[in-house]
Amino acid sequence: MLDLGAGTGKLTRVLADRYSRVIVVEPLPELRTILGERVPEADVRAGAAERIPLDDAAVDAVFAAQSFHWFANDVAVGEIARVLRPGGVVALLWNRSDDPSPLPNAYRRRIAELHDRGQEPADRGAHPAAVPVRRGARGSRPAHADEQPRRRPRVRRVGELDRGS
Q1: Same domain (yes/no): 81, 111
Q2: CB–CB of 18/61 below 8 Å?
Q3: 10, 150 Cβ separation under 8 angstroms
Q4: Is residue 160 part of a domain?
Q5: Whether 7 contacts 27, CB under 8 Å
Q6: pLDDT band of 3, cuts 50, 70, 90
Q7: Which of 10, 2, 17, 56 is nearest to 31 (CA)?
Q8: What is the CATH number of the domain that holds 31?
Q9: How far is CA 129 from CA 14, 98, 114, 121, 142, in A?
Q10: Is 127 exposed, middle or buried (0-12, 13-18, 19+ CB in 10 A)?
């Protein structure tokens, strides 16, 4: 299994609990350090989706959780196809907010207030509402994956990845 663009390893921990070998490719050295601490059983490697440091047909699956938008280009897709074994699977995962939000109005107002002031609370652990957020096309979301509200997974089947044959 390959976790591509794993960030802090939220999905990596789940994969490592289920599979005997998990390889992680992460371009940022700071995040690779966190990954090594949080998931020491994973094989953490420097690299990028456009230059995956694996042999051809090396993995049965490639996972990209909350990261594919960073490397959704022809070179990266070609690299993913190259490292997948025949019949391999690509799993692209995203969190989506529930609409309407299950979060209390006071919590959402506090998040928006902190975001609008551009403040980074000194101690994020002090209060659950002290979580910096980013605003995007789909609304506000906590900036730290481990602090996101619980999401319902959505699964979609997609066509087989073109291997350029």
Answers
A1: no
A2: no
A3: no
A4: no
A5: no
A6: very high
A7: 10
A8: 3.40.50.150
A9: 26, 18, 9, 10, 10
A10: exposed
pLDDT in tens, 112-138: 888 787 654 444 443 333 333 333 333
How would residue 107 be classed by pLDDT, with cut points 50, 70 and 90?
Answer: confident
Q: Say whether both 88 and 116 belong to one domain.
A: no
Mean pLDDT for 49-58 is 96
Count of the separate structural domains present in the chain? 2
Domain ranges, residue 13 = 2-93
Give one word for 134, left, alpha or beta, with left for phi > 0 and alpha for psi -120 to 50: beta
In a domain, 79, yes or no: yes
**What is d(CA 89, CA 59) in angstroms, rounded to the nearest whole number?**
9
Based on the domain organization, do 56 and 126 belong to the same domain? no
Q: Can you give the pTM of this predicted structure?
A: 0.62
Same domain, 13 and 79: yes
Helices (H), the chain: 10-18, 29-38, 74-83, 105-117
